């Protein structure tokens, strides 16, 4: 009976490790190219972040494409392509912080993670005077639509990207 309990304990441990390990991999559905289709409440979000009218107009009118490419067994490459500036992050590993460039060209501590079935992208500027402030974006797949949720001072905005 003790041997049976021991095998059961090992089986439970194996299942737990397997589940934890598989959650550290970007789900297949995220791989691809997604082009911005439309936004909801985005101007109010940018205003809550403290951006002025001209900056809000430029950001709102910018074309945006997000690209996720498999780079290795547990890593991916991410591109945020805009009419203002293209951002490229290579060899991203979920849960592992790295230094990347922000849209304002400042250096950012960037971390991608999975929580509750959503992908999160967190940015923390390394310079106190960076134009781009600390932020975290949530992504969720809805069929062929990648929905990005952004929040600032109680204002919630959504941006909808269509798979290309």
Low-confidence stretches: 8-22
How do the strands of the widest beta sheet line up side by side?
A: 4-3-2-1-10-9-8-7-6-5
Determine Rg (CA atoms, Å).
Answer: 19 Å
User: What class, by secondary structure content?
Assistant: alpha+beta
- What is the element string, with H for helices and E for strands? HEHHEEEEEEEEE
What separation lies between the terminal Cα atoms? 57 Å
Largest pleated sheet? 10 strands, antiparallel
Number of strands: 10
Helix content: 10-25%
Tally of DSSP helical segments: 3
Would you mind describing this structure in some detail?
This protein has 164 residues and is of the alpha+beta class. The protein has helices at residues 2-22, 42-48, 53-61; strands at 32-40, 64-70, 75-82, 86-93, 98-101, 107-115, 118-125, 135-142, 145-152, 155-163. A 10-stranded antiparallel beta sheet has the order 4-3-2-1-10-9-8-7-6-5. Helix 2 runs antiparallel to helix 3. Keywords: Lipid-binding, Signal, Transport.
């Amino acid at each position: 009976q003790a041997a049976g309990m021991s095998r059961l304990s090992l089986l439970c441990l194996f299942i737990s490790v397997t589940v934890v390990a598989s959650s550290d991999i970007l789900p297949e559905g995220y791989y691809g190219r997604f082009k911005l289709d439309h936004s909801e409440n985005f101007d109010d979000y940018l205003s809550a972040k403290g951006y002025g009218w001209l900056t809000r107009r430029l950001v709102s009118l910018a074309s945006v494409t997000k690209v996720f490419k498999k780079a290795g067994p547990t890593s991916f490459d991410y591109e945020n392509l805009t009419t203002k500036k293209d951002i490229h992050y290579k060899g991203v590993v979920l849960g592992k912080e790295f230094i990347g460039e922000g849209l304002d060209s400042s250096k950012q501590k960037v971390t991608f993670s999975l929580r509750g079935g959503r992908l999160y992208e967190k940015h923390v500027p390394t310079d106190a005077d960076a134009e781009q402030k600390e932020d975290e974006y949530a992504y969720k797949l809805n069929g062929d639509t990648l929905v990005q949720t952004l929040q600032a001072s109680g204002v919630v905005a959504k941006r909808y990207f269509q798979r290309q």
